[in-house]
């Protein structure tokens, strides 16, 4: 196989040529970059898909940004958001008419159906009710993960989606990232023989943990969802997708070890802004993170030119959870979590979610009978056992039409692109993360949490 033919087969595409371990062995130690080619099943649309965004926070903005770049494909014509700053900002970006701006999701559905689809990017505990109402009214749905906070609610959504023949795309965006697309494709093509086991690691990064799961919106599992779903249902899903076999059992352990009141240093105060004596040496200082380093400021709803408003940032730290001491929050999410999963045909997987890292980005090791894979989302190394030769694959950091990485390795916008095509063509097969495909990861998560709390191995029951 010459280099040109091999590179063509390396492209993740429908019906790609099989890449055997023999073909990989002939390459020697070579390194190739690749990107996702156009899907031949995508078609020009007669008109843009129209959508209403319910929840104009971070995730709603990410998906809305696709519409701003590609208005001929996706047109956001309505928004529901109780935060006036976010509502105004979102409406301005998408030129939304006043009559299509709403404070609550309930207000949207008081009107007859007036768009093709609904984007649900509300807090976790507000996914179920608007999703069920949207399905009842005939909308297709782009649903931010997790699907819903309970197993029953997830199953209810699946049942109603099937009954009303509607498209529900779950935002398991890693399925669309070129890195994981290539990983799965190679496994399916037998590049490392039969898959035997998987080790998957999600380093949250210590400041991300403090921001989102100690101070932030997901700090209390009772008010949102357990961290295994809020953060890691992506990872459970990608393991299931890559393995390609049903999950059977799970055993999990984990706890909240560090971000507790008893670990608060002497001299610390309720807020970092209250004259805390150890603030300068604390790695979780809100003053350092938000005020000095200007990181993760979107949650503070600042004016557009945020760098010129330091006094506004400081005021937010004095009045919101983002300025509170990480040891004195009402948080209960585990800061470390491990799960062992049994899949069909004797395939095993181990998953580890860790708060205390200086880095982020998933790490994965996949062991097969004829080779293995090791990757960190920036590079995937495939090794052939018989020759001990390596192939290094580097996904390009662009996702849609040359626009640089929208997030999750390019998966965010690639998901939206496929959703637009699925709705426009009324063909859910253009998506890999429909609710039918995505619900299993949630059941894995619910059972992992049961296992963690009860200390038992839990069966994963996919029957509806």
From TrEMBL:
Pfam families the record matches: GFO_IDH_MocA, GFO_IDH_MocA_C
Domain Gfo/Idh/MocA-like oxidoreductase N-terminal: 54-171
GO MF, one example: nucleotide binding
Span of domain Gfo/Idh/MocA-like oxidoreductase C-terminal: 184-457
InterPro entries, per database record: Gfo/Idh/MocA-like_OxRdtase_C, Gfo/Idh/MocA-like_OxRdtase_N, Gfo/Idh/MocA_Oxidoreductases, NAD(P)-bd_dom_sf
Name under which the protein is recorded: Oxidoreductase
């Amino acid at each position: 196989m010459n280099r040109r033919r091999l590179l063509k087969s390396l492209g993740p595409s429908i019906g790609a040529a099989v890449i055997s371990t023999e073909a990989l062995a002939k390459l020697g130690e070579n390194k190739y970059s690749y990107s996702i080619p156009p899907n031949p099943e995508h078609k020009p649309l007669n008109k843009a898909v129209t959508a209403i965004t319910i929840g104009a926070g971070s995730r709603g903005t990410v998906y809305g940004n696709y519409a701003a770049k590609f208005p001929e494909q996706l047109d956001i014509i309505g928004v529901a958001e109780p935060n006036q700053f976010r509502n105004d900002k979102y409406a301005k970006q998408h030129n939304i008419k006043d009559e299509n701006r709403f404070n609550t999701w309930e207000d949207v559905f008081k009107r007859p159906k007036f768009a093709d689809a609904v984007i649900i990017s509300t807090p976790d505990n507000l996914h179920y009710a608007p999703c069920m109402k949207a399905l009842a009214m005939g909308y297709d749905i782009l649903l931010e993960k997790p699907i819903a906070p309970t197993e029953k609610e997830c199953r209810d959504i699946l049942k109603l989606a099937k009954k009303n023949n509607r498209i529900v795309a779950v935002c398991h965006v890693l399925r669309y990232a070129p890195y994981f697309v290539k990983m799965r494709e190679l496994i399916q093509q037998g590049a490392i023989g039969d898959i035997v086991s998987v080790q998957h690691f999600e380093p949250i990064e210590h400041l991300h943990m403090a921001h989102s799961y100690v101070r932030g919106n997901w700090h209390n599992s009772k008010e949102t969802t357990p961290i295994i779903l809020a953060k890691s249902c992506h990872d459970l899903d990608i393991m299931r997708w890559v393995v390609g076999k049903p999950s059977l059992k799970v055993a999990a352990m984990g706890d909240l070890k560090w971000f507790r009141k008893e670990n608060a240093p002497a001299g610390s105060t309720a807020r970092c802004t209250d004259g805390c004596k150890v603030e300068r040496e604390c790695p979780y200082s809100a003053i350092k993170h938000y005020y000095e380093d200007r990181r993760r400021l979107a949650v503070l709803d600042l004016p557009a030119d945020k760098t010129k408003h330091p006094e506004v940032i400081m005021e937010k730290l004095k009045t919101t959870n983002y300025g509170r001491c990480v040891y004195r929050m009402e948080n209960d999410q585990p800061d470390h979590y491990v799960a062992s999963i049994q899949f069909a045909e004797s395939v095993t997987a181990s998953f580890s979610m860790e708060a205390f890292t200086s880095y982020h980005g998933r790490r994965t090791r996949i062991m097969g009978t004829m080779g293995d894979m090791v990757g960190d989302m920036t590079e995937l190394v495939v090794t052939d056992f018989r020759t001990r030769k390596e192939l290094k694959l580097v996904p390009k950091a662009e996702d849609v039409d040359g626009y640089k990485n929208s997030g999750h390795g390019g998966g965010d916008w690639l998901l939206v692109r496929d959703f637009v095509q699925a709705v426009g063509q009324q063909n859910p097969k253009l998506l890999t993360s429909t609710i039918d495909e995505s619900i299993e990861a949630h059941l894995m998560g619910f059972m992992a949490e049961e296992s963690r709390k009860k200390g038992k191995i839990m069966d994963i029951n996919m029957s509806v």
